[in-house]
Design a protein that fits this description.
globular, two-stranded antiparallel ribbon, alpha+beta, 546 residues, 8% strand
Protein backbone atom coordinates (compact mmCIF):
# COMPACT_ATOMS: atom_id res chain seq x y z
CA UNK A 1 0.00 0.00 0.00
CA UNK A 2 2.73 2.39 1.02
CA UNK A 3 4.84 1.48 -2.00
CA UNK A 4 1.87 1.98 -4.33
CA UNK A 5 1.27 5.42 -2.82
CA UNK A 6 4.92 6.30 -3.37
CA UNK A 7 4.76 5.14 -7.00
CA UNK A 8 1.65 7.27 -7.55
CA UNK A 9 3.44 10.25 -6.03
CA UNK A 10 6.46 9.60 -8.28
CA UNK A 11 4.24 9.58 -11.38
CA UNK A 12 2.53 12.79 -10.26
CA UNK A 13 5.90 14.40 -9.47
CA UNK A 14 7.29 13.54 -12.90
CA UNK A 15 4.41 14.72 -15.03
CA UNK A 16 3.34 17.75 -12.99
CA UNK A 17 6.93 18.97 -13.24
CA UNK A 18 7.42 18.16 -16.90
CA UNK A 19 4.31 19.67 -18.48
CA UNK A 20 4.94 23.13 -16.98
CA UNK A 21 8.70 22.94 -16.41
CA UNK A 22 9.59 25.30 -19.24
CA UNK A 23 7.14 27.97 -18.06
CA UNK A 24 8.40 27.60 -14.49
CA UNK A 25 12.01 28.00 -15.64
CA UNK A 26 10.97 31.24 -17.34
CA UNK A 27 9.16 32.37 -14.18
CA UNK A 28 12.13 31.63 -11.91
CA UNK A 29 14.70 33.22 -14.25
CA UNK A 30 12.79 36.48 -14.71
CA UNK A 31 11.62 36.45 -11.08
CA UNK A 32 15.20 36.15 -9.82
CA UNK A 33 16.13 39.20 -11.89
CA UNK A 34 13.10 40.97 -10.42
CA UNK A 35 14.71 41.05 -6.98
CA UNK A 36 17.05 43.68 -8.42
CA UNK A 37 14.52 45.38 -10.69
CA UNK A 38 15.33 48.91 -9.46
CA UNK A 39 19.07 48.36 -9.83
CA UNK A 40 18.58 46.94 -13.34
CA UNK A 41 16.46 49.96 -14.31
CA UNK A 42 19.14 52.35 -13.06
CA UNK A 43 21.77 50.51 -15.13
CA UNK A 44 19.49 50.68 -18.17
CA UNK A 45 19.21 54.46 -17.76
CA UNK A 46 22.86 55.58 -17.62
CA UNK A 47 21.83 59.21 -18.09
CA UNK A 48 20.62 59.34 -14.50
CA UNK A 49 23.21 60.84 -12.21
CA UNK A 50 24.80 58.77 -9.48
CA UNK A 51 23.61 60.28 -6.18
CA UNK A 52 25.50 59.39 -3.03
CA UNK A 53 23.61 59.46 0.29
CA UNK A 54 24.28 62.88 1.72
CA UNK A 55 25.76 63.65 5.09
CA UNK A 56 23.32 64.16 7.95
CA UNK A 57 20.80 66.89 7.23
CA UNK A 58 18.67 68.54 9.87
CA UNK A 59 15.19 67.27 9.02
CA UNK A 60 13.59 70.15 10.93
CA UNK A 61 15.38 72.65 8.68
CA UNK A 62 14.41 70.70 5.57
CA UNK A 63 10.75 70.63 6.69
CA UNK A 64 10.78 74.39 7.36
CA UNK A 65 12.00 75.34 3.88
CA UNK A 66 9.58 72.84 2.34
CA UNK A 67 6.60 74.37 4.17
CA UNK A 68 7.60 77.86 3.06
CA UNK A 69 7.72 76.68 -0.56
CA UNK A 70 4.33 74.96 -0.28
CA UNK A 71 2.83 78.16 1.10
CA UNK A 72 4.06 79.95 -2.02
CA UNK A 73 3.01 77.47 -4.73
CA UNK A 74 -0.08 75.78 -3.25
CA UNK A 75 -1.78 78.03 -0.66
CA UNK A 76 -5.26 76.64 -1.27
CA UNK A 77 -4.44 72.98 -1.75
CA UNK A 78 -6.32 70.13 -0.11
CA UNK A 79 -3.14 68.23 0.75
CA UNK A 80 0.53 69.04 1.35
CA UNK A 81 3.17 66.32 1.41
CA UNK A 82 6.88 66.61 2.21
CA UNK A 83 9.35 63.81 1.55
CA UNK A 84 12.39 64.40 3.76
CA UNK A 85 15.91 63.34 2.69
CA UNK A 86 16.38 59.63 3.40
CA UNK A 87 17.44 56.31 1.90
CA UNK A 88 14.34 54.71 0.40
CA UNK A 89 14.16 50.98 1.11
CA UNK A 90 11.44 50.60 -1.52
CA UNK A 91 13.39 52.26 -4.35
CA UNK A 92 16.78 51.38 -2.77
CA UNK A 93 18.22 54.79 -3.50
CA UNK A 94 18.78 58.17 -1.88
CA UNK A 95 15.70 60.41 -1.95
CA UNK A 96 16.23 64.18 -1.92
CA UNK A 97 13.89 66.67 -0.31
CA UNK A 98 10.71 66.97 -2.36
CA UNK A 99 7.23 68.40 -1.98
CA UNK A 100 3.91 67.52 -3.57
CA UNK A 101 0.38 68.83 -3.32
CA UNK A 102 -3.15 68.28 -4.56
CA UNK A 103 -5.37 71.15 -5.61
CA UNK A 104 -9.03 71.35 -4.66
CA UNK A 105 -10.97 69.23 -7.17
CA UNK A 106 -13.37 70.83 -9.61
CA UNK A 107 -17.10 70.04 -9.22
CA UNK A 108 -17.94 66.48 -10.34
CA UNK A 109 -14.23 65.54 -10.30
CA UNK A 110 -12.92 62.92 -7.89
CA UNK A 111 -9.54 64.58 -7.34
CA UNK A 112 -7.67 67.77 -8.03
CA UNK A 113 -4.56 68.53 -10.05
CA UNK A 114 -1.32 67.42 -8.45
CA UNK A 115 2.11 69.05 -8.47
CA UNK A 116 5.61 68.10 -7.31
CA UNK A 117 9.00 69.79 -6.94
CA UNK A 118 12.44 68.81 -5.70
CA UNK A 119 14.14 71.29 -3.39
CA UNK A 120 17.56 72.02 -2.00
CA UNK A 121 17.38 70.84 1.61
CA UNK A 122 19.34 73.85 2.92
CA UNK A 123 18.24 76.84 0.84
CA UNK A 124 14.83 75.67 -0.33
CA UNK A 125 15.68 76.54 -3.92
CA UNK A 126 13.87 74.53 -6.59
CA UNK A 127 16.26 72.04 -8.19
CA UNK A 128 16.39 71.80 -11.97
CA UNK A 129 15.04 68.61 -13.47
CA UNK A 130 17.50 65.88 -14.44
CA UNK A 131 18.07 65.21 -18.14
CA UNK A 132 15.34 62.94 -19.46
CA UNK A 133 16.80 59.41 -19.48
CA UNK A 134 16.33 56.98 -22.33
CA UNK A 135 13.07 55.10 -22.54
CA UNK A 136 13.52 51.55 -21.27
CA UNK A 137 11.44 48.62 -20.12
CA UNK A 138 13.99 48.26 -17.34
CA UNK A 139 13.99 45.76 -14.55
CA UNK A 140 10.26 46.13 -14.08
CA UNK A 141 9.60 44.39 -17.41
CA UNK A 142 11.55 41.33 -16.23
CA UNK A 143 9.70 41.44 -12.92
CA UNK A 144 6.30 41.58 -14.66
CA UNK A 145 7.20 38.80 -17.06
CA UNK A 146 7.50 36.36 -14.17
CA UNK A 147 3.79 36.59 -13.33
CA UNK A 148 2.09 38.12 -16.40
CA UNK A 149 4.09 36.51 -19.22
CA UNK A 150 3.81 38.56 -22.46
CA UNK A 151 1.84 38.96 -25.70
CA UNK A 152 -1.43 37.99 -23.99
CA UNK A 153 -4.10 39.66 -21.83
CA UNK A 154 -3.03 40.35 -18.27
CA UNK A 155 -5.61 38.05 -16.68
CA UNK A 156 -4.73 35.17 -19.01
CA UNK A 157 -1.02 35.38 -18.21
CA UNK A 158 -1.72 35.64 -14.49
CA UNK A 159 -3.92 32.54 -14.54
CA UNK A 160 -1.44 30.52 -16.60
CA UNK A 161 1.31 31.28 -14.09
CA UNK A 162 -1.09 30.46 -11.25
CA UNK A 163 -1.89 27.06 -12.77
CA UNK A 164 1.81 26.33 -13.27
CA UNK A 165 2.52 27.39 -9.68
CA UNK A 166 -0.15 25.00 -8.40
CA UNK A 167 1.41 22.14 -10.36
CA UNK A 168 4.83 23.10 -9.03
CA UNK A 169 3.53 22.97 -5.46
CA UNK A 170 2.22 19.47 -6.22
CA UNK A 171 5.60 18.52 -7.70
CA UNK A 172 7.47 19.77 -4.61
CA UNK A 173 5.25 17.90 -2.14
CA UNK A 174 5.24 14.68 -4.17
CA UNK A 175 9.01 14.97 -4.65
CA UNK A 176 9.52 14.93 -0.89
CA UNK A 177 7.19 11.90 -0.62
CA UNK A 178 8.89 10.05 -3.49
CA UNK A 179 12.47 10.41 -2.26
CA UNK A 180 12.27 8.77 1.13
CA UNK A 181 16.04 9.22 1.57
CA UNK A 182 16.04 12.74 0.19
CA UNK A 183 18.06 14.27 3.04
CA UNK A 184 20.53 11.38 3.05
CA UNK A 185 20.90 11.66 -0.73
CA UNK A 186 21.64 15.37 -0.25
CA UNK A 187 25.14 14.43 0.92
CA UNK A 188 25.67 12.00 -1.96
CA UNK A 189 26.80 13.04 -5.41
CA UNK A 190 28.17 10.54 -7.90
CA UNK A 191 29.63 12.35 -10.92
CA UNK A 192 29.95 10.68 -14.30
CA UNK A 193 27.13 8.19 -13.60
CA UNK A 194 24.61 9.46 -16.16
CA UNK A 195 21.06 9.23 -14.86
CA UNK A 196 22.25 8.71 -11.30
CA UNK A 197 24.34 11.91 -11.44
CA UNK A 198 21.42 13.97 -12.73
CA UNK A 199 19.19 12.58 -9.96
CA UNK A 200 21.83 13.38 -7.33
CA UNK A 201 22.16 16.94 -8.63
CA UNK A 202 18.37 17.37 -8.74
CA UNK A 203 18.02 16.10 -5.15
CA UNK A 204 20.88 18.18 -3.79
CA UNK A 205 19.64 21.42 -5.35
CA UNK A 206 16.05 20.72 -4.31
CA UNK A 207 16.94 20.10 -0.66
CA UNK A 208 19.34 23.08 -0.48
CA UNK A 209 16.57 25.63 -1.03
CA UNK A 210 13.50 23.50 -0.26
CA UNK A 211 12.04 25.99 2.30
CA UNK A 212 12.45 28.79 -0.25
CA UNK A 213 10.74 26.78 -3.00
CA UNK A 214 7.80 25.97 -0.74
CA UNK A 215 7.51 29.57 0.47
CA UNK A 216 7.83 31.21 -2.94
CA UNK A 217 5.31 28.88 -4.59
CA UNK A 218 2.71 28.94 -1.82
CA UNK A 219 2.96 32.70 -1.24
CA UNK A 220 2.68 33.37 -4.98
CA UNK A 221 -0.61 31.47 -5.00
CA UNK A 222 -2.07 32.92 -1.81
CA UNK A 223 -1.54 36.66 -2.31
CA UNK A 224 -3.04 36.43 -5.82
CA UNK A 225 -6.15 34.49 -4.78
CA UNK A 226 -8.25 37.52 -5.74
CA UNK A 227 -7.30 36.81 -9.37
CA UNK A 228 -7.43 33.00 -9.22
CA UNK A 229 -10.70 32.79 -7.25
CA UNK A 230 -12.70 35.96 -8.04
CA UNK A 231 -16.16 34.41 -7.64
CA UNK A 232 -16.99 36.09 -4.32
CA UNK A 233 -15.99 39.54 -5.54
CA UNK A 234 -17.81 39.03 -8.83
CA UNK A 235 -21.07 38.03 -7.12
CA UNK A 236 -21.06 41.08 -4.84
CA UNK A 237 -19.59 43.74 -7.14
CA UNK A 238 -19.88 42.40 -10.66
CA UNK A 239 -17.15 41.60 -13.16
CA UNK A 240 -16.98 44.97 -14.91
CA UNK A 241 -14.41 47.74 -14.31
CA UNK A 242 -16.86 49.83 -12.25
CA UNK A 243 -17.50 46.93 -9.88
CA UNK A 244 -13.78 46.31 -9.41
CA UNK A 245 -13.26 50.03 -8.70
CA UNK A 246 -16.04 50.00 -6.11
CA UNK A 247 -14.50 46.91 -4.47
CA UNK A 248 -11.05 48.56 -4.28
CA UNK A 249 -12.49 51.82 -2.91
CA UNK A 250 -14.30 49.98 -0.14
CA UNK A 251 -11.32 47.73 0.65
CA UNK A 252 -8.87 50.63 0.93
CA UNK A 253 -11.47 53.06 2.32
CA UNK A 254 -11.03 55.57 -0.47
CA UNK A 255 -13.38 58.49 -0.92
CA UNK A 256 -14.75 58.25 2.60
CA UNK A 257 -13.81 61.84 3.50
CA UNK A 258 -14.48 65.16 1.85
CA UNK A 259 -11.34 67.26 1.80
CA UNK A 260 -11.21 70.99 2.41
CA UNK A 261 -8.52 73.57 1.70
CA UNK A 262 -5.70 73.67 4.23
CA UNK A 263 -3.57 76.54 5.45
CA UNK A 264 -0.18 76.95 7.06
CA UNK A 265 -0.20 74.92 10.30
CA UNK A 266 -0.40 76.88 13.55
CA UNK A 267 1.66 74.33 15.47
CA UNK A 268 5.43 74.24 14.94
CA UNK A 269 6.12 71.30 12.61
CA UNK A 270 9.82 71.19 13.64
CA UNK A 271 8.62 70.65 17.22
CA UNK A 272 6.51 67.70 16.10
CA UNK A 273 9.48 66.30 14.17
CA UNK A 274 11.64 66.43 17.30
CA UNK A 275 8.91 64.53 19.19
CA UNK A 276 8.92 61.85 16.50
CA UNK A 277 12.74 61.69 16.56
CA UNK A 278 12.65 61.04 20.29
CA UNK A 279 10.56 57.93 19.55
CA UNK A 280 12.15 56.72 16.31
CA UNK A 281 15.64 58.18 16.30
CA UNK A 282 17.30 61.01 14.41
CA UNK A 283 16.71 61.12 10.66
CA UNK A 284 14.04 58.40 10.72
CA UNK A 285 11.13 60.46 9.39
CA UNK A 286 10.22 59.77 5.78
CA UNK A 287 7.21 61.98 5.07
CA UNK A 288 5.23 64.84 6.60
CA UNK A 289 1.63 65.12 5.37
CA UNK A 290 -0.83 67.90 6.10
CA UNK A 291 -4.54 67.51 5.31
CA UNK A 292 -7.96 68.28 6.70
CA UNK A 293 -11.20 66.34 6.38
CA UNK A 294 -14.55 68.10 6.37
CA UNK A 295 -15.77 68.68 9.93
CA UNK A 296 -12.47 67.64 11.52
CA UNK A 297 -9.41 69.62 12.65
CA UNK A 298 -6.39 69.81 10.34
CA UNK A 299 -3.82 67.04 10.87
CA UNK A 300 -0.07 66.59 10.60
CA UNK A 301 0.87 62.99 9.85
CA UNK A 302 4.49 61.86 10.28
CA UNK A 303 5.61 58.54 8.76
CA UNK A 304 8.71 56.60 9.72
CA UNK A 305 11.31 55.45 7.20
CA UNK A 306 10.38 51.92 6.17
CA UNK A 307 12.29 49.34 8.15
CA UNK A 308 12.84 45.63 7.74
CA UNK A 309 9.43 44.57 8.94
CA UNK A 310 7.38 42.07 6.94
CA UNK A 311 4.51 44.58 7.23
CA UNK A 312 6.39 46.65 4.65
CA UNK A 313 3.61 48.90 3.39
CA UNK A 314 2.42 50.03 6.82
CA UNK A 315 5.24 52.01 8.39
CA UNK A 316 4.80 53.51 11.83
CA UNK A 317 2.95 56.85 11.92
CA UNK A 318 2.24 59.64 14.38
CA UNK A 319 -0.79 61.97 14.06
CA UNK A 320 -1.05 65.43 15.54
CA UNK A 321 -3.63 68.21 15.59
CA UNK A 322 -2.18 70.90 13.28
CA UNK A 323 -3.69 73.69 15.42
CA UNK A 324 -2.86 72.55 18.96
CA UNK A 325 -0.09 69.95 18.53
CA UNK A 326 -2.16 67.41 20.47
CA UNK A 327 -1.31 63.78 19.68
CA UNK A 328 -4.21 61.98 17.99
CA UNK A 329 -5.10 58.31 18.21
CA UNK A 330 -3.89 56.00 15.46
CA UNK A 331 -6.38 55.37 12.69
CA UNK A 332 -7.66 51.81 12.21
CA UNK A 333 -5.60 49.78 9.78
CA UNK A 334 -7.00 49.98 6.26
CA UNK A 335 -8.26 46.59 5.11
CA UNK A 336 -8.05 45.02 8.55
CA UNK A 337 -6.22 41.81 9.39
CA UNK A 338 -7.05 40.21 6.01
CA UNK A 339 -5.15 42.88 4.07
CA UNK A 340 -2.35 42.76 6.64
CA UNK A 341 -2.00 38.99 6.11
CA UNK A 342 -1.94 39.40 2.35
CA UNK A 343 0.66 42.18 2.68
CA UNK A 344 2.96 40.06 4.85
CA UNK A 345 2.75 37.12 2.42
CA UNK A 346 3.36 39.45 -0.53
CA UNK A 347 6.39 41.07 1.09
CA UNK A 348 7.79 37.67 2.02
CA UNK A 349 7.42 36.62 -1.64
CA UNK A 350 8.97 39.82 -2.99
CA UNK A 351 11.70 40.12 -0.37
CA UNK A 352 10.89 43.82 0.11
CA UNK A 353 11.91 43.67 3.77
CA UNK A 354 15.40 42.35 2.97
CA UNK A 355 18.60 44.37 2.83
CA UNK A 356 21.14 43.97 0.03
CA UNK A 357 22.48 40.66 1.37
CA UNK A 358 18.98 39.31 1.84
CA UNK A 359 18.13 40.14 -1.76
CA UNK A 360 21.29 38.35 -2.92
CA UNK A 361 20.09 35.27 -1.01
CA UNK A 362 16.71 35.56 -2.76
CA UNK A 363 18.49 35.94 -6.12
CA UNK A 364 20.72 32.91 -5.54
CA UNK A 365 17.73 30.87 -4.37
CA UNK A 366 15.94 31.88 -7.57
CA UNK A 367 18.89 30.63 -9.63
CA UNK A 368 18.80 27.38 -7.64
CA UNK A 369 15.15 27.13 -8.63
CA UNK A 370 16.21 27.35 -12.28
CA UNK A 371 18.81 24.65 -11.62
CA UNK A 372 16.27 22.41 -9.90
CA UNK A 373 13.82 22.71 -12.78
CA UNK A 374 16.56 22.36 -15.40
CA UNK A 375 18.05 19.21 -13.88
CA UNK A 376 14.57 17.72 -13.56
CA UNK A 377 13.82 18.34 -17.23
CA UNK A 378 17.16 16.89 -18.32
CA UNK A 379 16.70 13.90 -16.00
CA UNK A 380 13.42 13.06 -17.76
CA UNK A 381 15.10 12.97 -21.17
CA UNK A 382 18.07 10.94 -19.87
CA UNK A 383 15.72 8.30 -18.46
CA UNK A 384 13.58 8.17 -21.60
CA UNK A 385 16.59 8.04 -23.92
CA UNK A 386 18.04 5.16 -21.90
CA UNK A 387 14.70 3.34 -22.08
CA UNK A 388 14.39 3.75 -25.86
CA UNK A 389 17.99 2.68 -26.44
CA UNK A 390 17.39 -0.43 -24.35
CA UNK A 391 14.35 -1.11 -26.50
CA UNK A 392 16.56 -1.12 -29.60
CA UNK A 393 15.62 2.27 -31.09
CA UNK A 394 18.62 3.40 -33.14
CA UNK A 395 20.38 6.32 -31.44
CA UNK A 396 17.71 6.51 -28.77
CA UNK A 397 15.74 8.93 -30.95
CA UNK A 398 12.02 9.28 -30.38
CA UNK A 399 9.75 12.16 -31.38
CA UNK A 400 8.61 12.86 -27.81
CA UNK A 401 12.13 12.71 -26.40
CA UNK A 402 13.47 14.85 -29.27
CA UNK A 403 10.74 17.44 -28.68
CA UNK A 404 11.42 17.66 -24.94
CA UNK A 405 15.19 17.86 -25.51
CA UNK A 406 14.73 20.66 -28.03
CA UNK A 407 12.54 22.62 -25.61
CA UNK A 408 15.07 21.94 -22.86
CA UNK A 409 18.01 23.39 -24.74
CA UNK A 410 15.88 26.33 -25.92
CA UNK A 411 14.75 27.12 -22.39
CA UNK A 412 17.78 26.27 -20.25
CA UNK A 413 20.42 27.69 -22.62
CA UNK A 414 18.33 29.89 -24.91
CA UNK A 415 16.44 31.96 -22.33
CA UNK A 416 19.58 33.21 -20.51
CA UNK A 417 21.03 34.14 -23.91
CA UNK A 418 17.86 36.09 -24.72
CA UNK A 419 17.99 37.92 -21.38
CA UNK A 420 21.57 38.98 -22.09
CA UNK A 421 20.42 40.21 -25.51
CA UNK A 422 17.77 42.27 -23.69
CA UNK A 423 20.53 44.16 -21.86
CA UNK A 424 22.56 44.60 -25.06
CA UNK A 425 19.49 45.98 -26.84
CA UNK A 426 19.28 48.69 -24.20
CA UNK A 427 22.72 49.93 -25.20
CA UNK A 428 22.51 49.33 -28.96
CA UNK A 429 19.01 50.50 -29.93
CA UNK A 430 18.86 54.19 -30.95
CA UNK A 431 18.04 56.38 -27.94
CA UNK A 432 15.36 58.32 -29.88
CA UNK A 433 13.74 55.19 -31.30
CA UNK A 434 9.94 55.09 -31.22
CA UNK A 435 8.54 52.47 -28.80
CA UNK A 436 12.08 51.81 -27.68
CA UNK A 437 11.08 50.12 -24.42
CA UNK A 438 8.77 47.73 -26.25
CA UNK A 439 11.50 46.82 -28.72
CA UNK A 440 13.84 45.87 -25.89
CA UNK A 441 11.30 43.23 -24.85
CA UNK A 442 10.71 42.24 -28.50
CA UNK A 443 14.47 41.66 -28.79
CA UNK A 444 14.39 39.27 -25.85
CA UNK A 445 11.65 37.12 -27.39
CA UNK A 446 13.07 37.35 -30.92
CA UNK A 447 16.44 36.02 -29.76
CA UNK A 448 14.72 33.34 -27.68
CA UNK A 449 12.72 32.24 -30.72
CA UNK A 450 15.95 32.20 -32.71
CA UNK A 451 17.49 29.75 -30.24
CA UNK A 452 14.53 27.43 -30.84
CA UNK A 453 15.21 27.39 -34.58
CA UNK A 454 18.91 26.93 -33.85
CA UNK A 455 18.19 23.91 -31.63
CA UNK A 456 15.99 22.43 -34.35
CA UNK A 457 18.62 22.94 -37.04
CA UNK A 458 21.66 21.65 -35.14
CA UNK A 459 22.42 18.27 -33.58
CA UNK A 460 21.24 18.58 -29.99
CA UNK A 461 24.58 17.87 -28.34
CA UNK A 462 26.17 20.61 -30.44
CA UNK A 463 23.26 22.97 -29.78
CA UNK A 464 23.76 22.55 -26.02
CA UNK A 465 27.46 23.35 -26.15
CA UNK A 466 27.20 26.15 -28.71
CA UNK A 467 24.31 27.95 -27.00
CA UNK A 468 26.05 27.72 -23.62
CA UNK A 469 29.16 29.26 -25.18
CA UNK A 470 26.85 31.83 -26.76
CA UNK A 471 25.55 32.71 -23.27
CA UNK A 472 29.12 33.06 -22.04
CA UNK A 473 30.12 35.43 -24.84
CA UNK A 474 26.92 37.48 -24.73
CA UNK A 475 27.12 38.10 -20.98
CA UNK A 476 30.82 38.96 -21.32
CA UNK A 477 29.96 41.46 -24.07
CA UNK A 478 27.46 43.36 -21.89
CA UNK A 479 30.12 45.23 -19.80
CA UNK A 480 32.21 45.74 -22.94
CA UNK A 481 29.33 47.31 -24.90
CA UNK A 482 28.41 49.37 -21.84
CA UNK A 483 31.96 50.77 -21.74
CA UNK A 484 31.89 51.55 -25.48
CA UNK A 485 28.49 53.28 -25.49
CA UNK A 486 28.47 55.15 -22.15
CA UNK A 487 30.92 56.77 -19.74
CA UNK A 488 29.80 54.45 -16.91
CA UNK A 489 32.36 51.67 -17.47
CA UNK A 490 33.41 49.26 -14.73
CA UNK A 491 36.65 51.06 -13.83
CA UNK A 492 34.92 54.39 -13.36
CA UNK A 493 32.06 52.82 -11.41
CA UNK A 494 34.49 51.17 -8.99
CA UNK A 495 36.38 54.43 -8.45
CA UNK A 496 33.12 56.33 -7.90
CA UNK A 497 31.84 53.59 -5.57
CA UNK A 498 28.78 53.32 -7.78
CA UNK A 499 27.88 49.82 -6.67
CA UNK A 500 24.77 49.57 -8.86
CA UNK A 501 26.74 49.90 -12.11
CA UNK A 502 29.80 48.07 -10.80
CA UNK A 503 27.69 45.27 -9.33
CA UNK A 504 25.72 44.84 -12.55
CA UNK A 505 28.86 44.59 -14.72
CA UNK A 506 30.54 42.20 -12.28
CA UNK A 507 27.41 40.03 -12.18
CA UNK A 508 27.42 39.84 -16.00
CA UNK A 509 31.06 38.71 -15.92
CA UNK A 510 30.29 36.16 -13.20
CA UNK A 511 27.44 34.73 -15.28
CA UNK A 512 29.76 34.56 -18.28
CA UNK A 513 32.19 32.47 -16.23
CA UNK A 514 29.33 30.25 -15.00
CA UNK A 515 28.15 29.51 -18.53
CA UNK A 516 31.73 28.86 -19.68
CA UNK A 517 32.07 26.24 -16.92
CA UNK A 518 28.75 24.68 -17.93
CA UNK A 519 29.78 24.61 -21.60
CA UNK A 520 33.06 22.87 -20.76
CA UNK A 521 31.35 20.31 -18.52
CA UNK A 522 28.64 19.55 -21.08
CA UNK A 523 31.30 19.19 -23.79
CA UNK A 524 33.29 16.74 -21.67
CA UNK A 525 30.14 14.80 -20.83
CA UNK A 526 29.23 14.54 -24.52
CA UNK A 527 32.69 13.25 -25.39
CA UNK A 528 32.58 10.70 -22.56
CA UNK A 529 29.09 9.50 -23.51
CA UNK A 530 30.04 9.21 -27.17
CA UNK A 531 33.06 7.09 -26.27
CA UNK A 532 30.97 4.81 -24.06
CA UNK A 533 28.32 4.37 -26.75
CA UNK A 534 30.99 3.26 -29.24
CA UNK A 535 31.82 0.34 -26.93
CA UNK A 536 28.22 -0.45 -25.98
CA UNK A 537 27.02 -3.84 -27.33
CA UNK A 538 24.15 -3.46 -29.78
CA UNK A 539 20.85 -5.21 -28.93
CA UNK A 540 20.26 -8.58 -30.55
CA UNK A 541 18.08 -8.74 -33.66
CA UNK A 542 15.84 -11.47 -34.98
CA UNK A 543 13.70 -14.13 -33.39
CA UNK A 544 15.85 -14.52 -30.36
CA UNK A 545 15.75 -10.85 -29.50
CA UNK A 546 13.82 -9.96 -26.38
Amino acid sequence: MKEGFRQCAAWLHTWSGLVVGWVLFFVFATGAAGYFQHEITRWMQPERLHVEPQAFLDQTQAATVALQRLQQVAPGATRWSITLPHVSREMRSWQNLSISWEEMPQPSHGGGLEGMEQLDAVTGAVLSAEPEPRATAGGRALYQLHYLLHYMPRDVGLRIVGLCSMLMLIAIVTGVITHKKIFKDFFTFRPGKGQRSWLDAHNAISVTALPFFLMITYSGLVFALFAYMPAGRTVLYGSGPSGQTTFANELFERGGHKHVAIGFPIVSVPTLIRKAESAWGTGQIQTVNLEQHDGEPPEVLLSQVQGRSLDFWNSATLRFNADTGEALSEEPRVGGSALLTQGVIFNLHEGLFADIWGRWLYFIAGLLGCAMIGTGLVLWTVKRRKYHMAAGLEGGEHFGVRLVETLNVTTIAGLPLAMAAYFLANRLLPVEMTDRAAWEVHTLFAVWLGTLFYALARPLVRAWVELLWGCCLTYAFVPVVNALTTNRHLGRSLLARDWVFAGFDLTMLALAVLFAVLAVKVRRRVVTRHASELHMPRPAQGKGAV
